[in-house]
Amino acid sequence: MRLVWWLATIVAISIVSIVLSEQGTIDPIRNLSLTATSPIQGGLRDIASPVDDIFAGITDRGSLAEENDRLKAQVEQLQAQLAQQQGAQQRIEELEDAVGVKQSRPDDTLEAANVIAEDTAGSKRFIAIDLGEHDGLDEGMIVVSRNGSLIGTIAQLYGDFAWVRLITDPDSTVNAQVAGTPTMGAQPAATPQVATPGTPTPLAGASPPPSTTPAPVPTESALVRAVARGDLRREILLDLIPSATALARGDIVVTSGLGGNYPRGLLVGSIEDVEVRPQAPFKVATVAPAADLSGLDTVLVLTSFIPARLTSP
Questions:
Q1: Are residues 127 and 65 in the same domain?
Q2: Which of 15, 51, 163, 246 is most buried, taking the most CB atoms under 10 A from its CB?
Q3: The pLDDT of residue 192
Q4: Is residue 200 part of a domain?
């Protein structure tokens, strides 16, 4: 019975509230309630605002991290494409140089090879190329740069690759020649004038007759033969140069062809310095290699030249 009275009371209050609300009677009470509770709502809103900012920052940080990862992936992809383009352009330039060398040596057969390894530790100067015995190579074959200057010879041969001994290796020896500096022709000594009977004696103060001695004429440069050997400190030393030979910085050193191990005329390098040894029968010169041996990518193997491997008689 009590429950029925409670339900009836609640229903009655609800009906009265609806009627009063429709008539606007309770608006002052509602405004008073809103005025009293608005500071509390503002405070609660201020307290909740940092928490809301934190959750918003966490959400935004996740989005920024995803965007950052996406941009990094795009940058990496673009860098990879640029590297491929640069590598392709470099490869084209190397092959163009190789074609130029082949055109300059129409009687020779040259095979392009890629450098796949280096061994320059300790007292060795070697590079490995991606051609080997299966490609028709043989030990002792000459290897030149893409510009045609001497690099070295094939020292160790395998099926699919080979090790090349560089000309700066201490065990490398090349018979070479260099053009010496031109020297002036020797001037013959003046012939004394001897008075003979019937020959008038020149008067004092008179101009002497013109000399018939020819003026000095420069002689042609003589090809000086020497031996170029590898040196770890100074790259290449040119040894066994006759002490009377006049050499200058910048003189060109090429292969002489003696011994049959190298063809004649391959560029080795240029003279950087000449060491004079008093009372010694020979000079020693430092030679800078023409090829950049520390940055080799593509090389050429001279397959048409077979070393003679001459032996002493």
A1: no
A2: 163
A3: 40
A4: no
